[in-house]
Design goal:
The chain is of the alpha+beta class. It contains one helix and eight strands; from the N terminus they run H-E-E-E-E-E-E-E-E. It has one domain: Beta Barrel (Sortase, Chain: A), CATH 2.40.260.
């Protein structure tokens, strides 16, 4: 009996140590690695846009081809391509082409919460979100375009770009930078909680199936930011909406 008790005690200690190491991995290492990768990607994009003859909007481009307006639930639209960089397609993202899946093409800045993060196409966890990037819902508008620019990012672990999204308030400014300039949006409303299946929040005219007191009722130039809530849970979604400032478009 004493040997059995000792064995169970040793197993419990080992299990506890493994759980502690896993917690350290999730709460520290994934953040450290993803934040470093995101910081480097922001630096690379800014350097690329400044390079003469590079992706600065002055290169050639294909004929206009705006993205479609279909948008699904507030969840992952799977993407399986390798991460591609903005220099793969010149002239992004002023409507001439849509980005490739997992391609980084923009930088999101929210001064109110001290956020600067790269934006990539799609919301695939492994290829985009777990890298500390902000994901752009496939099929939604691109920065500066009419419609709804819908973005998502982790709130906890893997860089947690939207950790403090709940601190964003109406009146706060958001800037989306691309190879072709900046698009500035002013936050207008916040939906503290809705179902992950509430796809209405990322439609071209965003609203909510859960609440008819928030959202919009006519076409415009909108921005939607989504993340999980409450913290360390994916049960609901926090949604923040903004509108493009007139005359400030990329």
């Amino acid at each position: 009996m004493r040997r059995i008790v000792q064995g169970l005690s040793d197993a419990a200690v080992t299990l506890g140590a493994l759980m502690l190491l896993f917690a350290v991995y999730l709460l520290w290492w994934t953040n450290h690695a993803a934040q470093a990768q995101a910081h480097e990607e922001v630096r690379r994009l800014e350097q690329e846009w400044r390079r003469p003859g590079g992706v600065d909007g002055s290169g050639g481009g294909a004929a206009p081809s705006a993205p479609g307006n279909g948008a699904g639930a507030v969840a992952d639209g799977a993407a399986s391509d390798e991460v591609r960089h903005a220099d793969d397609t010149r002239g992004l993202p002023d409507g001439r082409r849509t980005p490739a899946r997992s391609q980084t093409f923009g930088i999101l800045r929210i001064p109110a919460i001290g956020l600067t993060a790269p934006v990539a196409e799609g919301v695939d966890k492994h290829r985009v979100l777990d890298r500390g990037f902000v994901g752009h819902y496939v099929g939604t508008a691109l920065p500066g375009q009419q419609g709804n620019v819908a973005l998502a990012a982790h709130r906890n672990t893997h860089g947690e770009p939207f950790r403090h999204l709940d601190d964003v308030r109406p009146g706060d400014m958001v800037t989306l930078s691309t190879a072709n300039g900046d698009s500035q949006y002013r936050i207008e409303s916040v939906l503290p909680s809705t179902s992950p299946d509430d796809g209405a929040v990322i439609q071209p005219v965003p609203s909510s199936a859960a609440s008819h007191q928030v959202g919009y009722d006519k076409p415009g130039h909108y921005l939607t930011l989504t993340t999980c809530t409450p913290e360390f849970s994916s049960r609901y979604r926090l949604v923040v909406w903004g509108r493009l400032l007139e005359g400030v478009r990329g």
